[in-house]
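Sanity check

After download, print the first record. It should look like this:
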Amino acid sequence: MRMVIQLVSAAFIFLFNGCNKGSDPAPNPPVTDNFAKGADVGWLTEMEAAGRKFYNNSGAEQECMALLKSLGMNTIRLRVWVNPANGWNGSADVVAKAVRAKNLGMRVMIDFHYSDTWADPGHQTKPVAWAAQDFATLKTSLYNHTFNVLTDLKNNGVTPEWVQVGNETNDGMLWPEGKASTNMANFAQLVNAGYDAVKAVSPSSKVIVHVSNGFDNSLFRWLFDGLKNNGGKWDVTGMSLYPSPSAWQTFNNQCYTNMTDMVARYDKEVMIVEVGMSWDQPAACKSFIADLIVKTKALAGNKGLGVLYWEPQSYNNWQGYTLGAFDNSGKPTAALSAFN
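Expected structure tokens:
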């Protein structure tokens, strides 16, 4: 997510079973719909630890991932930080959430930020433990981190269907060494280190390179031409899209043009890995998502893989974020009915 969000310090609690009590539930049947409809819920365990609860439209308390599944979602996306200050989004926390998603029969996407905190177009800060490393060592650290987290997931029975190598890498990652505008070749090498680590653990997982502003074709051409020309490897072109309630039609049209161009230009699949809109505009948000799903499904060769909402379950000004899709009582708004 592009926004700079100030994290509130909290005691780190591993919540392997979420709201469930007693023994682990039996795994649910797997999802069979090929088109990914889902949500990034990286905040979930932290929200639960803070006492936040989630309710269906009838007012009954429900475990969040199961609630999202009942609304038509089949995919959970989880961000990974290297050494987060309070543990949230570190490897153990990510594994706990991924196991919960897998037990519900949901598909999993893993989003490596390669930072101890948020990585976005304006912030690609190296992990503290990697700060003094030369470029060769930095590539090795990125490879090992990717390999180790995915191995932890594999050892817990989770094979991600998609893995993001970097988050909103509009200008590369792991600055300054991997800043694309100053050294595209270095950025490509970092992407390839992540790509190779993913395939070493899970050859079936598709690797995503993710860029924000899915409406901006010139940005995408610049970045992905640069990757291609420097031998960069990726399987899926990932996009974010955060329009205002009044501008979503223009954004969606521009995004569709961009997606179509990405498919034709690179012969890669495309995925909208983040969307959001103000929580108090559910009608506009529902129209926005429904239209974007139609447009993504319409891409040539069935190369449009899915649409995911970013932290829809955040509510009542959680961490200052207002682009969720739950109301202030912890219930999903009508916006999420677009996924069903």
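If your output differs, re-run the checksum step. Summary of this record's structure: The chain is about 35% helix and 15% strand.
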